[in-house]
Design a protein that fits this description.
Length: 501
């Protein structure tokens, strides 16, 4: 999506900027009814069959950005219905987090195998020979697949020497590793909330922009205007997100110009989490637990809890870097309110947990942060700064890339106990995470440290990112290597008791 879904990105950014500007300017929310006309002026549709449909979809995006529910197309509701609930300076959030705007969905056909013009009606007919249910036959011009008989096994596709058979699948369903995408009575996508882990991959894969998550931009901006103790904590994947000319220091200063008291790297919390998980692994595996899973990716832990509940006890008890960073700030400033900025929408759910909500008060993505920059007219590359950032270690900053968490925990554990042999294995994408957990449940990963990341490539591929994965990976790698701390043990910012063996 970051590379090619430009039209959708522009619409999303305009919506985020509109809501943020309304909050900064103190605009009455009753003006929301005009917003879709301001975002999509004129009477000629740009993307769909009707300008009225386009505006109706933008209206739902505006509501979701305020944290409100999507309206049902079968019921009459004004755009501003429930608006008073959103007009506050604290998180006002009602699940579900991920929502389908039903009248934006084009009811894409579900998984199927189709024969293309590449078919040459070859003499061997391997496609008909391998089909276990006789769903493939040879027609006048090409092979034919009877969709009523087809069981979607894919054998015909695999055996075709001309690659004439292609697999077709809904982009949102293909991206969902937990099979949470279903269909409603009109064939439109519907999310099974009992299976959904709020990873957001369906959001970035839908080419119609029919799926979106709820935001806290408006409430955060109101809080920034009313409170002088709001701190931003930013995930290590922020590098490269805001253009090649914006340096890390300029990004931090730009965030302060939005009204934040200060900005702290979440990599600092990653160092703390690394130390805790390293000790936990050494103490518990294999004596108490057969293996240990890391705790950093919230969608990974929710997936284990929902699909492998008997294995959930083997996920680390350590708090995530987001929480550890927030706790560090709260210890220094008990009055602090803390906003997490990162690539992940699942963190919005993590912040609602009973053991987290007193530490993390708002969660926004990089994409939403960009909307705030646009609303305030902040151009990061033009900000003049001179100081450097030294909050965290090289290992802590590496959490953003798949494999970085396990590498940090393993290296730290070996510093504590060099005699241990530690095997690690990681998975990025929920499809791979599910496979890994099946192996772990079967006893094939005993003694291992397992790292699960719901997004391809790790956090740098999260749904809230706004730059290509390769660009961010390069920027993160360069930034982490600039740290004056190699490991958490070298970071004097962390309390001595945490660094003790």
């Amino acid at each position: 999506m970051k590379e090619s879904y430009v039209n959708l990105i522009n619409i999303r950014r305009q919506v985020f900027a509109k809501i943020a500007k309304m909050a900064y300017d103190g605009t009455d929310l009753s003006e929301l009814e005009k917003s879709s006309f301001e975002i999509l002026p004129g009477e000629v549709a740009l993307y769909r069959d009707s300008i009225f449909r386009e505006r109706a979809i933008v209206d739902e995006r505006l509501r979701l950005t305020l944290g409100l529910d999507v309206r049902k197309p079968t019921d009459y509701h004004r755009v501003t219905d429930g608006i008073s609930e959103a007009d506050v300076d604290e998180t006002q959030f009602i699940e579900p987090l991920v929502n389908v705007i039903s009248f934006a969905c084009e009811a894409c056909p579900t998984k199927a195998y189709n024969v293309t013009d590449n078919c040459r009606k070859c003499l061997a007919h391997p496609c008909t020979n391998v089909c276990p249910v006789n769903a493939v036959s040879i027609g006048k011009d090409r092979a034919i697949i009877d969709q009523d008989k087809c069981i979607k096994c894919g054998r015909c596709k695999e055996t075709c020497p001309y690659s004439a058979i292609v697999k077709y699948e809904r982009p949102c369903a293909a991206a969902c590793g937990v099979n949470a995408i279903e269909s409603d009575y009109l064939g439109r996508a519907k999310i099974n909330v009992d299976r959904c882990v709020s990873c957001g991959n369906c959001i970035i894969q839908c080419p119609y922009g029919a799926i979106s998550d709820k935001s806290q931009i408006y409430q955060l901006v109101k809080a920034l205007k009313n409170n002088n103790h709001i701190y931003a904590i930013i995930a290590p994947s922020f590098l490269g997100q805001f253009g090649p000319l914006a340096t890390p220091v300029q990004i931090f200063e730009g965030i302060k110009q939005l009204g934040f008291e200060d900005v702290v790297e979440v990599s600092l919390g990653a160092d703390i989490t690394t130390l805790r998980e390293a000790k936990e692994f050494l103490e518990r595996v294999p004596e108490e637990h057969p293996y240990m899973g890391t705790s950093c990716c919230n969608s990974w832990t929710i997936m284990v809890q929902k699909l492998f509940p008997d294995q959930y006890q083997y996920i680390s008890d350590s708090a995530s870097p987001m929480v550890e960073t927030a706790k560090y700030i709260k210890n220094k400033d008990p009055e602090a309110k803390i906003a997490f900025i990162g690539p992940c929408i699942s963190k919005k759910l993590e912040a609602l947990r009973e053991d987290v909500k007193d530490f993390v008060h708002f969660v926004i993505t990089y994409e939403e942060l960009m909307g705030m920059f646009v609303a305030k007219g902040i151009e990061l590359s033009e900000i003049e700064v001179s100081k450097e950032i030294q909050d965290a270690s090289t290992l802590g900053r590496g959490y953003a890339i798949a494999g970085g968490v396990a590498e940090a925990v393993k290296n730290t554990a070996l510093k504590i106990d060099p005699s241990r042999e530690i095997n690690v294995e990681g998975a990025s994408t929920l499809h791979e995470c599910v496979k890994l957990m099946r192996l772990a449940k079967a006893g094939k990963k005993n003694g291992y440290l397992l790292e699960g990341m719901a997004c391809s490539g790790g956090c740098i591929g999260g749904p809230g990112t706004i730059a290509s994965l390769n660009r961010v990976r390069k920027a993160v790698t360069e930034f982490k290597n600039q740290s004056e701390y190699e490991t958490p043990f070298d970071n004097d910012t962390i309390d001595e008791k945490l660094r003790s063996k």
